[in-house]
Specification:
87% helix, single chain, Helix Hairpins, 3 helices, mainly alpha
Length: 149
């Protein structure tokens, strides 16, 4: 892979009616700037991807924790209901209401986490698509500029 330094240090041989040295040097400077910008964008993109991957991993961990909490809440509510059946009707209704609230809250939290996870995935895919388009347009630009030389 060429680096900006490779381009900057490239020397062309001169023929009888060689290239205009000033034009070649100006064009080389433009290529160096473009490559430096692309490298910078690539570094930033890689950092952003790593950041999004960490965030996605965090959300998956949270999702598992919530799922485990839901399972635990479900088991707890079943135990409460089983124990409450031997007691008065008032205690049965109270324990049932509490279990339903825990499950509803846990379900709501899981839904919210899944939505955030999907949003992060969509942002990543959108960013990836935009970056590909940028790279392709820069490549086309460089190819057209090379053809003009």
């Amino acid at each position: 892979m060429l680096t900006p330094l490779d381009i900057q240090n490239k020397h062309f041989s001169k023929g009888l009616r060689g290239y205009n040295e000033t034009e070649v040097e100006e064009y080389m400077a433009q290529i160096v700037k473009s490559m430096e910008a692309l490298i910078h964008v690539n570094i930033e993109t890689t950092a952003r991807i790593n950041e999004l991957e960490k965030e996605l991993k965090h959300f998956k961990t949270m999702e598992k924790t919530i799922t485990d909490a839901m399972v635990l809440a479900q088991k707890t509510s079943e135990d409460i209901i089983r124990t409450a059946e031997s007691k008065a009707q008032y205690r049965i209704e109270k324990a049932d209401d509490q279990a339903k609230k825990v499950i509803t809250d846990a379900n709501t939290e899981v839904i919210n986490i899944i939505k955030r996870q999907e949003h992060a995935k969509q942002e990543f895919m959108s960013f990836n698509t935009r970056f590909k388009v940028l790279l392709e347009s820069q490549l086309q630009l460089m190819e057209s500029q090379v053809k003009e030389i």
